[in-house]
Amino acid sequence: MSIDFLRVFDLINYQAIKYPQANCLNYWQNEKWQSLSTLQTQKSIDDISCWLMQNGFAEGQRIAIVPRMGSPRWMMVDFACQQIGLVVVPIHPTSSPEEMTFILKETEAVLCITADTELYRKAKDLLDNTSLKMLFHLEEKSEGFFPALNDSASDHFSMAQLEAQKEKITPQHLLAILYTSGTSGQPKGAMLTHHNVVSNIKSILPILPLQAGQRALSFLPFSHIFERTSCCAYIAFGVNIYFSQNLSLLSTDFKSVQPYFCTTVPKTLERMYDILLEQQSEKNWWKKKVIGWAMAVGEKYRDEKQVSLFFGMKLFFARHLVLYRWKRALGGHIKYMAVGAAALRPQISRLFSAAGVVTLAGYGMTEASPYISVNRPGFHKFGTVGLPVPGVEIKLDEPTENGEGEILIKGPNIMLGYYKRPELNAEVFTTDGWFRTGDVGKMINKHFLTITDRKKDIFKTTAGIYIAPQPLENHFVASAFIFQCLVVGFNKPFVSAVLVPNFQVLKNWCDQNNIHWTSPTYMIHNIKVMAKMQMEVDALNETLENYRRIKKFVLSDVEWTTESGHLTTSFKIMRAKLLEKHRQEIEKLYLE
């Protein structure tokens, strides 16, 4: 019998017919992993849908969710909303009250469900300024728990009415509105249909190396499209999804679940890489040398099929002495990691692959549902984000002599547009239907895409978080001791900065504290001066979200001027020129 899925919520029925699983969705409770079968999952989804209809929620209304990590409940709530035509609006748990209010008001959301009581209280403070009629959370045994998750919640509602409503939902129906950061700091909502996401899932089914019954561990934020679409793809594959307890227990979960596959972001891999670097500072001379040698071997890894006999011998010893520790730390059975949200440093990708964990770096964005390109078994090149996924076209707009140009994309996965932003839609879509990503890239060997820059100033860290540098720069020059500021962190694990001190204020402070003043060139290296500047940065960091804080900085002894070519005539910084001027100092910030 031929079976297909045309709407996202069809996936559960698709799995039930094609690959019915006893362990469809898995979660940790009562000191062990608990499982929901495919049929149990479908019943719970239907029960929640019935409760929503019984309580007056109707097709087209917007339902806000504020999850942290994924869970069976979030999957079921999501699918339950979808199958009766409710539009899901995920909100990041780290969103400020202002951002949350903006999203709730713009979408006119009538129901909000949060992950826990902490986020529940955060949303409750915003009730008076929004259209919300109901507010719940998913933390059991606490006031405000979502009643649809109780077994008897939908006893009196007709399943026939639910089935009739499901039939009305077409692939062209709006599925979700997912908000991303805008250049002005104001979020913008990407409108995705069922067809957008389903087409993207079907694009990756032939290329991701997964089979029914294998295990995947989910631990990325469920408000991000990368994890949402990936979890849907797992269901289509018949893969058993295990939802991590929390990030602090991620290592424990890897060991107990022993997954074959997971999606991740570069920052997670960078943490493991940093642990190896820290071990290189061991006092034990022999351990230090062995770890350094093994890492050097791993960073030269290319492909298993291209390994010479001599390198193969070195790789064998490097793996068994050092590199296989990584694989064992990840449960011992993991074979592939799909890496998205930001660029992965090639040396880290090589090291993991040398350790027997193949990193499939890819490129995507919310507006593309999100998969655009990805490395895959047999078609893999380190330092790139792979080949376009089937059905997605990529072209470079006005490429330079070295082949770089803005990445334009087209395909059935591309969003309808930004919610209530007609002027922005006119900017991002060309007259012939191509979507402007704002990223600059080029093709390697005519097929593999690599990302080289951001067309605009906003950049993405390796945690997958967009950072608008100008507001941060304005924030830090509020200090009397900081004259100019350049915020950096594109494709890096955290935000850093190049700071030009206000040397007159600094000189006065030195005089007051009996610190001998010589010249800016020498004073920027003075230990007491650096400590004072650190205090200033720390004080200003206090009012910022953690991911926007400056973790490291370097001082410049020369003011940036129009005469030096580092400021425009309107005194705006020339970012590209300053990045080049301070390239070596910036690189050192991420090596230390």
Describe this structure in words.
The protein is an alpha/beta fold and 592 residues long. It has 3 domains: 14-169 and 211-259, Rossmann fold (3-Layer(aba) Sandwich); 266-459, ANL, N-terminal domain (Rossmann fold, 3-Layer(aba) Sandwich); 468-589, GMP Synthetase, Chain A, domain 3 (2-Layer Sandwich). It is built from 20 helices and 25 strands. The strands form 6 sheets. Strands 2-1-10-9-11-12-13-14-15 form a 9-stranded mixed β-sheet, sandwiched between helices. Strands 4-3-5-6 form a 4-stranded parallel β-sheet, with helices on both faces. Strand 3, helix 3 (72-82) and strand 4 (87-90) form a beta-alpha-beta unit. Helix 11 packs across helix 12 (309-329).
